[in-house]
Amino acid sequence: VWTRGVVGGGKKTMTWDEMNIIATLHPTDKTYGHMKIDEPKTPYYPEEEEIAGSSRNTDVAVDQLISRMGLLENIPGISNLFPSQNASEEEEEELSPEEKEKKRVFEQKRKMIYTEGKNLKLARELIAREEQEEQEDSD
């Protein structure tokens, strides 16, 4: 709580009743959200490189990368997680001639569907050009 007053020179002053503020806004029995946290802090385990003080080296030798990829091939069941093109070639070898033909026709139809949107755009452009030419000829 504060009060305004006018001092002899016509200046306004402000006076704070600090004891009233302490009594009303900061009672001793209230914590106002200052809770004590009993849980321990989350542990942080730095990487070995950080402990040694060295900076991270992101350069990986190609030889190391190839050897690591070779190690992945030795893990059973890893091929199911990362299907490769080799797997599709192996599957294709196991197919009968009829199934191969069926697969080839299916892939052609799928490609046609993906190019259908482009073909529609081209057709619309051709129709629009022809209409413009007809309008120019009639004028």
Topology:
Layout: E1 2-6, E2 12-16, H1 18-25, H2 48-52, H3 62-73, H4 78-81, H5 85-94, H6 97-138
Antiparallel strand pairs: 1-2
Pick out the low-confidence regions: none
General shape: flat
Q: N-to-C SSE series?
A: EEHHHHHH
Helix content: 55-70%
Strand percent estimate = 5-15%
C-alpha-based Rg, rounded: 40 Å
Strands of the widest sheet, in order across it, are 1-2
Number of distinct beta strands: 2
Q: With helices defined by DSSP (H or I, 4 residues minimum), what is the helix count?
A: 6
Kindly, what is the distance between the CA atoms of the first and last residues, rounded to a whole number of angstroms? 87 Å
**What class would the helix/strand composition place it in?**
mainly alpha
For the biggest sheet, the summary is: 2 strands, antiparallel
Please, what is the average pLDDT? 77
What is this structure, in a nutshell?
The protein is mainly α and 139 residues long. It contains six helices and two strands. Strand 1 and strand 2 (12-16) form a beta hairpin.
List keywords for this structure.
flat, mainly alpha, 139 residues, single chain, 7% strand
